[in-house]
Design a protein that fits this description.
about 400 residues; alpha/beta; globular
């Protein structure tokens, strides 16, 4: 008999400068993440607080009230949308009697569940170690300093936390060496692929339909309605048709192909530890000849998702303009869920995008045509969209 899922409460702080609708959107996404991790979400709470409480982040009064509510509903976990320090997590757990996870810890737990290959498991373990290392403080505060070795006089010896930190640092070094080796293997695999076949990377917000598009273009892939369903890069060969114009008789009857790589999805507040750990996987994005940026056209936070994708691409070294900039095509997927006026509005906001539905093969001919015309060859000059530009820094 299957055990019932663990119940959780979701909370987020709203400061004076934060819009409540934005906080609610973040909590909705946090609820998706929690369900993806196997939790049953009992309720969501916005805690209004002008300033962050140094010890507990949210303040003891509101946390005590939440603890009472949790006790009435059998809740065991408190999941926070904000990033907390190790001492704050410890203080919250001591005050409430609940197991506390922040957003980064929750995303790491999902990645740990999804990782299948040796490389993905090593990447996630590295991210976990680097996340936990600064949070070890306080985990062993109940222990006194250990004495020196047997028969030695004086010298207080090491604390348990120092032993743990050394072990974690040693493991981090081992994982980095292993991933460096796997990255070299991946590079060798890239170099060994057939010459002359352009390489295209699918990038975008998590659960936007990248794997569905991979299957539509290549006939392979296993789409799932899950956040972070894909952690390992999957590369397949796609047929692009023939570059031949029957009206003019120009072009070639020889079929054209390219290699399409499905990559890990992005998300707002994506832990920097994961971005760093998945460097070799995301190398498929940096070294691709072109990018297909896939977005869920029907999602209410579409524009925000695109800004997150643009910022993450810049973080991993993919600039939208310049000599080394890769050609990009924005693919607005799942337009079958939109009405005609919504599609027209999307066309006005993103005139250069392809509106598609991978499941119904809508828009695939446009994508193949774009790939045939643009790859291989230099990128054509284009005007950048708002989501590709860095956020403006407010004046002091």
């Amino acid at each position: 008999m299957d055990a019932s899922p663990l119940r959780c409460l979701l909370i987020a702080r709203q400061g004076p400068e934060d819009r409540e609708d934005r906080i609610q959107d973040h909590l909705l996404e946090l609820a998706e993440l929690a369900r993806s991790c196997g939790f049953e979400v009992q309720s969501r709470r916005v805690l209004k607080r002008p300033q962050i409480a140094p010890k507990t982040f949210y303040g003891s009064g509101q946390l005590e009230a939440l603890a009472q509510e949790a006790g009435r509903h059998g809740v065991t976990h408190l999941i926070c949308d904000d990033e907390l320090t190790g001492s704050q997590v410890n203080a919250i757990e001591k005050l409430t009697g609940l197991i506390c996870l922040d957003r980064t810890g929750l995303i790491l737990s999902i990645f740990e569940q999804r990782a299948q290959t040796r490389e993905a498991k090593a990447q996630v373990e590295l991210a976990r170690c680097e996340y936990e290392l600064p949070r070890l403080k306080g985990a062993w505060t109940h222990l006194e300093r250990q004495g020196g070795g047997v028969g030695l006089r004086g010298g207080p010896g090491e604390t348990q936390i120092e032993v743990d930190r050394r072990m974690v640092r040693t493991r981090i070094s081992q994982l980095k060496r292993e991933l460096s080796h796997l990255e070299q293997v991946r590079k060798t695999q890239r170099d060994g692929r057939p010459k002359g076949l352009p390489r295209v990377a699918l990038v975008g917000y998590t659960n936007a339909g990248k794997t569905s598009l991979l299957k539509a273009l290549t006939g392979e892939g296993e789409p799932r309605d899950l956040l972070f369903a894909t952690l390992d890069t999957t590369t397949r060969k796609a047929w692009l048709g023939q570059d031949f114009n029957p009206e003019t008789g120009e072009g070639s009857l020889e079929p054209k192909h390219c290699l399409v790589a499905d990559t890990v999805g992005f998300i707002r507040k994506l832990p920097h530890q994961l971005v760093a750990a998945f460097r070799s996987t995301l190398g498929e994005v940096r070294t691709a000849d072109a990018l297909l940026v896939v977005a869920d056209a029907a999602h209410p936070d579409l524009e925000d998702h695109l800004k997150v994708v643009g910022a993450t691409l810049r973080e991993i070294g993919c600039e939208p303009e310049g000599i080394e900039a890769q050609p990009r095509l924005l693919v607005l997927n799942q337009v079958d869920r939109l009405h005609r006026p919504q599609k027209l509005d999307l066309k006005k906001r993103h005139p250069g995008a392809v509106q598609s539905c991978a499941i119904e093969n809508l828009g695939l001919d446009e994508i193949r045509l774009w790939l045939r015309e643009l790859i291989p060859g230099p990128a054509k000059p284009r005007e950048l969209e708002a989501w590709e530009l860095p956020e403006a820094t407010p004046a002091p």
